[in-house]
Amino acid sequence: xxxxxxxxxxxxxxxxxxxxxxxxxxxxxxxxxxxxxxxxxxxxxxxxxxxxxxxxxxxxxxxxxxxxxxxxxxxxxxxxxxxxxxxxxxxxxxxxxxxxxxxxxxxxxxxxxxxxxxxxxxxxxxxxxxxxxxxxxxxxxxxxxxxxxxxxxxxxxxxxxxxxxxxxxxxxxxxxxxxxxxxxxxxxxxx
Length: 191
Description:
Blueprint: H1 2-20, H2 22-35, E1 41-47, E2 53-59, H3 84-91, H4 99-105, E3 109-111, E4 116-117, H5 121-130, E5 138-140, H6 153-166, H7 169-185
Helix pairs in contact: 1-4, 2-3, 5-6
């Protein structure tokens, strides 16, 4: 029952937020284009529910020549790729806003394990072992509010497995509220 209600809530909340935030989308697009040549939207292949691949959308925060399928924190010198606008977008998590389209399409939910890169076999295998790959990926998740980028793979997958086992409206609401707090404090974000 809850997955059906959750999908309904996700769809209408994403639709409403896309309409309300359209001026923000336009302003961010202008800033990205003014600073750096290349597309405004970054597209990347990610593993979704049951490891089904989909294209995730984000505002581009790095130069167009940055490696596409490597997590930022694993790059040799990530700061050399991140643009000035990108730093601000990441700090405020505004780069994630285009994922509202992913939520609208049903690729993602507001809350769930963050979608892994298609080539993050270690994370996907650990999530499989813990039952987390069966949950729809989220814009935010239990791992994100418990350390985000700073968590090692086994710990991150552990939080994802715990989320999959505890999914409920109350748990999703708790994660959403903690996410707002983390965004405003910038806690757990590697720059």
